[in-house]
Design brief:
Protein name: Flavin reductase family protein
Distance between the termini: 35 Å
CATH architecture: Roll
Order of helices and strands: HHEEEEEHEHEEEEEE
Enzyme class: oxidoreductase
Helix content: 10-25%
GO molecular function, one term: oxidoreductase activity
Keywords: Oxidoreductase
CATH class: Mainly Beta
Low-confidence stretches: none
Number of strands: 12
Shape: globular
Largest sheet: 7 strands, antiparallel
EC number: 1.-.-.-
């Protein structure tokens, strides 16, 4: 019979933010750009995105509580998520740059297309697009968890995704011949 060790005191985990960031960075994630349309459209790079449910179709993303996008998402009825493809590092860096222009001008530097269901910009060449209606929000510590109900989607199944791991953008290794590891 095994016993579980007691959880470490809180200070042991949060006392070293750099160690915590490195440990979180050991989990590879996809890279997305979250967008909201309207009179002052906004985009933001996010790698905290995942599927939640198939029925209903739900996705979630986590946004820093102090981020401008957190306020924008709280006020929007709809939003979109573009899952970036390999080779779109420049797009990810652009929407992570806090000095980019505000409003529609921030989309001048990238190829995009108008979303139909969410009326939010979609990043051209992305591996997938999800257009969502705001469904729920939850407290997530220093982040807010935004859950969206998928209204429309499209995906390019042969498009390799952009991956973030260990603080760097990466590409997936090609599959060995024969399709097995």
């Amino acid at each position: 019979m095994s016993t579980l060790a007691a959880a470490p005191p809180r200070d042991a985990v949060t006392g070293d933010p750099a160690a915590l960031r490195r440990a979180f960075g050991s989990f590879a994630t996809g890279v997305t750009v979250v967008t909201v349309g309207g009179v002052s459209p906004r985009g933001m790079t996010a790698n905290s995105f995942t599927s939640v449910s198939l029925d209903p179709a739900l996705v979630l993303l986590c946004v820093g509580r102090d981020a401008v996008m957190n306020r924008v998402l709280a006020e929007a009825d709809t939003f979109a998520v573009s899952v970036l493809g390999a080779g779109q590092e420049d797009v990810a860096r652009h929407f992570a740059d806090r000095s980019r222009p505000p409003g529609a001008a921030q989309f001048d530097a990238v190829d995009w297309l108008p979303g139909g269901a969410a009326a939010a910009p979609l990043i051209a060449g992305a591996a997938a697009h999800f257009e969502c209606a705001r469904w729920r929000t939850y407290d997530g510590g220093d982040h807010t968890i935004h859950v969206g109900r998928v209204l429309a989607l499209d995906a390019l199944p042969d498009r390799e995704p952009l991956v973030f791991h260990g603080g760097r953008f990466r590409r997936l290794a090609p599959a060995p011949r024969g399709g097995r590891p």
